[in-house]
Design brief:
Order of helices and strands: EHEHEHEEHEEEEHHHEE
CATH superfamily of the largest domain: Response regulator
Number of helices: 7
Helix content: 40-55%
Strand order of the largest sheet: 2-1-3-4-5
Shape: elongated
CATH class of the largest domain: Alpha Beta
Length: 208
């Protein structure tokens, strides 16, 4: 299934995209004065022709779409240093455009799956770090799995349940293994972030 992509371009640019739309690996929707809200909500990416940014009204509208992935169609002599997700500079061919869109979408999916918000923290599974502002602690694979599990379930988890999900009942693991790992993780969090309430426990087990 093709992804929906919103196009902010000049008439010439839009006509060019429309002529080749059958060969694109995405479905283009061209911005005029309004975009259907359903199309907007189902579109994760926008393509912006740098020439359209001369239109102040359009530029303000684009600024509202900061949550979207943005690909700027740039010119070699353009001095716009705005923060876009990606850029492709003229001249480019159809393959370049298709590959760039595919890369941006796959990269976004990977990043979403690799980071989890836990209260005021960010768990970055790719970098193996728990972050808060400019500070972070390095995590082991087990610690990542523990935090991921506790965050996903959103309820108290027993030591035996954690053991079954994280350690898969490894022959060298017991309930003390869970207690030991959580103790060490709590200690790291408290030392770096002065927080001893991220992982709490009650009579039913552990929770975040």
């Amino acid at each position: 299934m093709k992804s929906n992509v919103i196009i902010f371009g000049t008439k010439f640019f839009n006509n060019t995209i429309n002529e080749i739309h059958e060969h694109l690996n995405f479905t283009p929707y061209f911005f005029t004065e309004e975009i259907d809200k359903k199309i907007l909500s189902n579109s994760n990416i926008v393509i912006i022709d740098c020439d359209i940014l001369k239109n102040i009204k359009i530029k303000k509208i684009i600024n509202v779409l900061k949550g979207k992935i943005s690909l700027l169609i740039d010119r070699p002599d353009n001095s716009d240093n705005s923060n876009y997700t990606g850029k492709i500079t003229r001249p480019f061919n159809l393959t370049d455009l298709n590959n760039k869109i595919t890369w941006l979408l796959s990269s976004s999916t990977f990043n979403k799956n690799s980071t989890i918000k836990i209260k005021e923290y960010i768990l970055d599974k790719n970098e193996k770090k728990l972050k808060k502002g400019n500070s972070y602690i390095a995590l082991t694979e087990r610690e990542i799995q523990l935090l991921d599990l506790l965050c996903a379930k959103k309820k108290s988890l027993s030591k035996s349940f954690i053991l079954s999900k994280v350690w898969k009942y490894a022959t060298d693991a017991d309930t003390h293994t869970v207690e030991t790992h959580i103790y060490r993780l709590r200690k790291k969090i408290k030392e770096q972030f002065l927080d001893d309430n991220l992982i709490i426990n009650n009579q039913d087990g552990y929770l975040i």
